[in-house]
């Protein structure tokens, strides 16, 4: 049965495989996501081939993150710490909650009394609404990468180029 | 070696597998993509889980499709008929050309003398610029699905619900 | 700027969007992954459209999980608890480590003194080698789904059908 | 509205974007897929990050391609020329047919009187059965890449490294 994966293929694959990536999130900075410093992120991966990025997202207690739409991409989340909910929905994300939000979803995130940390995988763009439902800003993989690189530059922190793949 | 995929697993998979989908594009209508009827599409798949859609895209000869950005998603194309290019680039897509455009790419498509038909797979959003580089519109999987359903409704054509999966 | 996403599109998307999915992992059972009960999983998502599955994976302390190849798919992991490594590599995954292993990677996982819990997203198939590098078994999304359903049936636990999407 | 994508972000994205890829399939060789030369492929993309490959697949008339399972990945196809079907199914793929086969699907492909050319996007692994339903071989992104590189080496054709991304 060894011939199912001949040694030649194993050696060939080893030669062409992308390198593994191992990131200790402890070593990464918390980068402010918004100007008001209500939330921060630690980047884990920027996949420039699909526009998908992965980060730890940290939200201060008792915050309301403005209403936004996930245009053209889904949200996958795994909550690590703290509690949060989307306004008007019946569930609360606690430690250990896994969340899928479909492309197009519009929501306003509200954190509870404890600081929140969630692992998020995101694609497409986030488009932010003001109180009149006008779109007043958007984020995508490039704006997030830009926030990270600018933060590193401003604080003299070396950029982890191995997060981009 | 049969035990690598036991019969129980084969029967189990057959029970849970998504149905196959087979679409004869001949049976689908050419739906106008833009108001000026410079281009049309035949939808092949709407993947609402990732925001990815697949369509045949048909462009009349000698058209200029307005400058747009692929925000948050990539473009994969396989050109079937006609020639087109992106303004300012050195290549021309002919029959049999495969194209990958990365997320964030901004381009203006120009068709040559023959009508173009290209198979495209798209994610994220298309954001259109006017001559002052102001964003004046956008498309994503929902606007494309909406164009298709509205066209079917207006022309008494049954909607192919099996394109959504 | 509101016209970038007209109300008609927002209402249309709300009608066609896939439902959100929220899973409290506390409510899910630890399903034995192997006969020797060295590791367990809590399923979070079975994406039958791409063959990708997401689970929490729990490994008893001081275990060696047999050498296997990720044929045709990548590994994405975020380690939540405990320490583990792949035999022969220089790094150790601790709480907060993010890991990407490319398709084709072959490795043997070794847990340290504390019980490990890792969030994994997997595609393709796992193919297991014996000590002579013969392939003696494999897993894919269906075998994992089968383990979960069989466990539920054997223990009178209702299957969470909303994990399949 | 220009501020939705500030010039700084456009310039930033242009700097970090992956390069576009344009492949004229006319310039690529038909690489034998099987030893009996019943089918050939022209590679269009090897995505080593996900194990997904894209190729034009050409099948001689009146062939039967052995029964195989798509373990851990889906099949997306767009038929360009000729007619083919899967044994036992009610449909026939003709020019312009789009096909989705779910992960786990098992089928035997039969071509009709004309040579077939189909664009396929594949993930995971193909596992081949003999007449006793024993698994006697498998392909994945590495075996396909290996066939291509070996063919180039044997025929003095330069490898298109830009197909790997």
TrEMBL record, chains A, B, C, D:
It holds the Pfam family Cupin_7. InterPro entries: ChrR-like_cupin_dom, RmlC-like_jellyroll, RmlC_Cupin_sf. Residues 21-126 form the ChrR-like cupin domain. It comes from the Bacteria. This is Cupin.
């Amino acid at each position: 049965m060894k011939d199912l994966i001949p040694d030649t293929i194993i050696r060939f694959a080893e030669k062409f495989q992308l390198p593994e990536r191992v990131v200790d999130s402890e070593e990464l900075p918390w980068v402010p996501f918004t100007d008001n410093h209500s939330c921060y992120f630690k980047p884990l991966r920027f996949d420039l081939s699909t526009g998908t990025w992965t980060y730890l997202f940290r939200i201060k207690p008792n915050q309301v993150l403005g209403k936004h739409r996930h245009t053209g991409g889904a949200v996958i989340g795994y909550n690590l710490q703290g509690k949060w909910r989307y306004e008007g929905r019946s569930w609360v994300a606690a430690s250990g909650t896994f969340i899928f939000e479909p492309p197009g979803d519009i929501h306003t995130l509200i954190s509870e009394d404890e600081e929140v940390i969630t692992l998020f995988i995101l694609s497409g763009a986030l488009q932010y609404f003001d109180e009149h439902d006008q779109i007043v800003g958007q984020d995508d993989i490039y704006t997030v990468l830009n926030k990270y690189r600018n933060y590193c530059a401003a604080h003299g922190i070396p950029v982890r180029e191995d997060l981009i793949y």
